[in-house]
Specification:
- The chain is of the alpha/beta class.
- Helix content is about 50%, strand content about 10%.
- It has helices at about 1-15, 30-45, 55-65, 85, 105-120, 135-140, 145-150, 155-165, 170-195, 195-205, 230-235, and strands at about 70-75, 95-100, 125-130, 210-215, 220-225.
- A 5-stranded mixed sheet has the order 2-1-3-4-5, sandwiched between helices.
- The protein starts with a helix and ends with a helix.
């Protein structure tokens, strides 16, 4: 009888256990469902209620033997304050992450994103910018950088130039904030311009590419949706 009650209690626990006990990254999600998972995870993170799912030995074994099946590809900055798995309260095998200073989309980044979207079949691609971005700030302020960094931030220069043209009267802080958001859109536009594969996947509805901004102080992610000129960029 004791064994019966013990088994019943365990079954009830497993049915009601938090996401940390889950053994799957929910393959087959739609882009909108993936976005919901990220939103819910970020809400937990901001509230200090992260469940830190998929971080145990069972998950390591599952992904070692069964491969990875992430539900989202995230392009974000290398900034140490912006770890996507923590910010979205996800775990091993959940997020295919591409990180580079300034969350720019050049050859290496786009090739990695293509792998996530086309080979791992993540339905959602998120370009995640963040407040206090050092790369964007350096471009806005015209700071001296090394030759390699100068090449790296070239896409940001285009974003900043557009912001200066539209907001000529803005002060430096406002320019930085607007440029950070514009840089997210720049990365998405660069993906479509330089990757026929991503453009085709997006045009046929097989993936959705959205922009987002992370506040390094509050911890909250603001999802901004698809590029304002998405249809035009996709040739629709």
């Amino acid at each position: 009888m004791k064994r019966f009650f013990a088994a019943t209690a365990m079954a009830a626990f497993l049915l009601t256990a938090p996401a940390a006990m889950a053994s799957s990254s929910s393959p087959g999600l739609t882009a909108d469902q993936a976005l919901t998972k990220l939103t819910e995870g970020n809400t937990r993170f901001v509230a200090g209620a992260s469940v830190q799912p998929h971080q145990d030995a069972a998950r390591r074994h599952e992904t070692a033997t069964g491969g990875q099946h992430p539900f989202v590809t995230v392009l974000t900055c290398s900034d140490s304050r912006v770890p996507p798995e923590v910010v979205f309260d996800q775990g091993l095998g959940d997020v295919f992450t591409v990180r580079v200073a300034g969350n720019v989309a050049a050859t290496d980044e786009i090739g990695s994103i293509e792998y996530g979207a086309d080979h791992l079949h993540t339905p959602l691609v998120v370009v995640l910018g963040h407040t206090k971005c050092g790369a964007v700030t350096a471009v806005v302020k015209g700071e001296e950088v090394t030759p390699n960094i100068e090449k790296l931030v070239a896409p940001i220069v285009r974003a900043v130039k557009g912001v200066r043209q539209r907001f000529a009267a803005a002060d430096t802080e406002e320019l930085i904030n607007k440029a950070i958001e514009a840089n997210v859109w720049q990365a998405i536009a660069d993906m479509y311009a330089k990757s026929p594969a991503l453009k085709k996947l997006a045009a046929t509805g097989k993936i959705k590419i959205v922009g987002a901004l992370y506040d390094v102080d509050s911890g909250k992610v603001r999802f901004m949706g698809e590029h304002p000129n998405n249809a035009l960029l996709l040739g629709k």
